UniProtKB/TrEMBL annotation:
Taxonomic superkingdom: Bacteria
Protein known as: DNA-binding protein
Lineage, top ranks: Bacteria, Pseudomonadati, Pseudomonadota, Gammaproteobacteria, Moraxellales
UniProt KW keywords: DNA-binding
Molecular function terms from GO: DNA binding
InterPro entries named among the record's database cross-references: Cro/C1-type_HTH (IPR001387)
Amino acid sequence: MENEDAKMQFAQRLIAAMQAQGYKVKASVLEREFNLRYSGKPITLQGVRKWLIGEAIPPADKLLTLAKWLNLPPEELAFDKDIQKAIQQREAHWQEEIGYRDKEIFDAFIKLPASQKKIVREVIVAFAKAYQTKDD
C-alpha cells in the first residue's frame, strides 16, 4: 500500500511539474520531451503513461532527466515535501551543532580502516548508553 501511495504521489508531482512548465499533461508529450533529452534507450508511450497514472516510478537515471527537463531538483520530484523538509532540518542541525573540532574528528574517522571504525563505533555507543537520560 505504501509503495502504491508513493507511486501516486510521484505521478501528482510529475503532473504538477509539467503544468508549471506549460506542458500539456499527456503521455505523448511526456514521451516526446523525455526521449529528446534522455541518452539511454527510449522509453515507450506505455512506460511514460505508467508514470503519469501512478503505476510506476522511473529509475534514478530517468528521474534525473525528468528533473533537468522540468527545472526541478531531483529530490523535489522524487520525494514529498515532508521528507525534503526533514532532510533539510537534519542537515541544518548537523551544520549548527557540529563544530570545527568535531568535523576534524569525523574526517579522521572516515580515514580509519574498517576494523578500527568498528571499535570507535562500539566505544561511542557504550558512552551514549552510559550517559543516556530518561528523556532520550
